[in-house]
Amino acid sequence: MALALLERRVRKREVMQSSEDIKAYLRLKLEHMEREVFVVMFLDRKERLIACESLFAGSIGSVEVHPREIVRRAIALNAAAVICAHNHPSGNAEPSNADRQITEDLVNALYLIETRLLDHIVVGHGEMVSFAERGWL
């Protein structure tokens, strides 16, 4: 119920004013998932939310992410920036080497279309890791 209410407010652009708002939304959306799910938030030039889409779903231990599909959606939505997030059903939010590699691949792919990757957030049980906050972007 809380997620549905928050999603209505997100669509009306009543929230998402800070990184804490974004993290709270992503925690509600992803923390309970039993499989890895990769979500992309597409933002306009003023960093207002255009769309939030679950683009990829995987197994309990991995999700295959295709940068090409994220680039395609960013172009279709005329996004200037994106925030990516995915969950770790194991509960441990520490990013894997594969998480770090896909983030680097996304930065490079999005750069080609003049779109910024603002953050990649990994959601665990009761914890989250932000690549931006760690200085990895």
From TrEMBL:
Descriptive protein name: DNA repair protein RadC
Biological-process GO terms, alphabetical: proteolysis
UniProt-listed CDD domains: MPN_DUF2466
InterPro entries per the UniProt record, alphabetical: MPN, RadC_JAB, UPF0758, UPF0758_CS
Boundaries of every MPN domain copy: 15-137
GO MF annotation terms: metal ion binding; metallopeptidase activity
Cross-referenced PROSITE patterns: MPN, UPF0758
Record keywords, A-Z: Hydrolase, Metal-binding, Metalloprotease, Protease, Zinc
